[in-house]
Design a protein that fits this description.
This protein is an alpha+beta fold and 412 residues long. The protein has three domains: 1-43; 49-168, 2-Layer Sandwich (Beta-Lactamase), CATH 3.30.450; 260-411, Heat Shock Protein 90. The protein has helices spanning 2-42, 47-63, 82-88, 106-122, 166-199, 201-217, 226-254, 267-284, 303-319, 351-355, 377-388; strands at 67-71, 77-80, 126-133, 139-150, 156-164, 263-266, 288-292, 298-301, 326-333, 337-344, 393-398, 402-410.
Length: 412
């Protein structure tokens, strides 16, 4: 259902994009038509014709949705319609006879006057999209078409039509952002399928193989390796369950279905509860885990989400620690937050690995010190959950010397 919705979203985005392109083409045609009307209005008429057509001309101009203007060869405004006054939020008395360049920032002013001079000089129409700062610093994006008109006496006039395209530009930016999110979601989908296809299938295959071995060996009453096989089956199944829980939690968070329950949570019991599940895996590698967390350290946060983050980081530290290494889990109280640190003396990471560590499409996990496989998905989940809890996560590491994973959780 998620991917079906994504496909429908993509079709809607494409439809909006095509509509935006058509609107832009129609806008250029409309600006050209309106410019021709303005030119005809400037043509010399008899006094009677001018008197008679003045009301007609004003009616046409004021019924145009776009702002229209006529300037002299000094860029001073001679004629504007109501839409122009509304665009600049000024009455006609403060517009006629002025350039309005003094009302905008210097960079906009220079651009306006430069284009005016160029069109008056060479007579080539100019269509331009540019920023406009109006009264009280309000920012707009406008599309302007400027044309030159020469009367019978050889006087040059600048005829222009302005359209406010601020909303259109914003819509295009939103469209680009939607396309970016769609690409990221598609990459996430591919990553998810990869994890399901490989990292979930392999542990179950291992469990089946171990069960077959155990079934055969149990027929030999003197066989003493049965507990070993049972331990491997148990740890493999448990790790697979953790990965499955991570996938389900992440899927819920992506669809907005995961709920956060804030409660007073003591850090120390949470860590020790996780260690009870992790200690058997650590022992198989001869790894010791030391906890330096005061009993009184508490946060108001989601206990379940916090456990997911700490569990993944401890599991990661065990995976990349060498047999006989030591892992340290610490909690440091700060003014308005608690920082939790998981330190190991394992293989560490180079700069390139560090840079791509928390990206779902860039994370390429290396095998553990005993060739343990992994998806790297746990760290992606940790980053997302920590940020949703209002904290930050980062890592300090040096190749061959271990890593320090640190994250903060707000006290409230």
């Amino acid at each position: 259902m998620i991917w079906y919705n994504l496909y429908n979203r993509f079709k809607r985005i494409k439809k909006v994009k095509d509509k935006t392109r058509r609107e832009l083409e129609n806008q250029i045609d409309e600006l050209q038509k309106q410019n021709e009307i303005l030119k005809s209005l400037l043509a010399f008429q008899s006094e009677e014709e001018k008197d008679e057509s003045e009301k007609y001309a004003n009616t046409i101009l004021n019924n145009m949705g776009d702002a229209v203007f006529v300037k002299d060869n000094g860029s001073r405004l001679l004629l504007v319609n109501d839409a122009f006054c509304n665009l600049f939020n000024l009455p006609r008395t403060k517009i006629i006879g002025k350039t309005l360049a003094e009302n905008v920032p210097p960079d906009e002013r220079e651009n306006f006057l430069r284009i005016d001079k160029q069109v008056l000089l060479d007579g080539i129409d100019n269509i331009n999209e540019e920023p406009l700062t109006v009264e009280e610093g309000e920012k707009k994006i406008i599309s302007t078409r400027k044309s030159r008109f020469i009367d019978e006496d050889g006087k040059k006039f600048l005829v222009g039509v302005i359209r406010d395209i601020t909303e259109r530009i914003k819509a295009e930016e939103d469209l680009r952002e939607s396309e970016k999110q769609l690409r990221e979601l598609n990459a996430t989908k591919d990553k998810l399928f990869s994890i399901i296809a490989h990292d979930l299938r392999s542990p179950f295959n291992n469990i089946l193989v171990l069960c077959d071995i155990l079934k055969t060996q149990l027929t030999k009453s003197e066989d003493s390796d049965a507990p070993v096989y049972l331990g491997l089956i148990h740890s493999t199944a448990k790790n697979t369950l953790v990965l499955l829980e991570n996938l389900l939690d992440w899927a819920k968070s992506q669809s907005g279905q995961i709920s956060f329950k804030t409660e007073k949570t003591s850090i120390s019991p949470v860590i020790h509860e996780i260690l009870e599940l992790s200690v058997s895996i650590a022992r198989t590698k001869g790894i010791s885990i030391e906890v330096n967390v005061a009993d009184e350290i508490e946060v108001n946060s989601d206990k379940k989400i916090l456990k997911t983050v700490i569990r993944n980081l401890i599991s990661n530290a065990i995976k990349y620690s060498r047999p006989g290494d030591k892992i340290t889990v610490s909690a440091i109280e700060e003014e308005d937050q608690v920082m939790i640190v998981i330190s190991d003396k394992g293989v560490g990471m180079d700069d390139k690995t560090l840079e791509n560590l928390f990206g779902i499409t860039t994370n390429t996990p290396l095998p553990g010190t005993l060739n343990e496989k992994g998806s790297g998905f746990g760290l992606v989940l940790c980053k997302e959950f920590v940020e949703k809890l209002g904290g930050k996560i980062w890592v300090e590491s040096e190749e061959g010397k271990g890593s320090n994973f640190m994250f903060t959780i707000p006290r409230n």
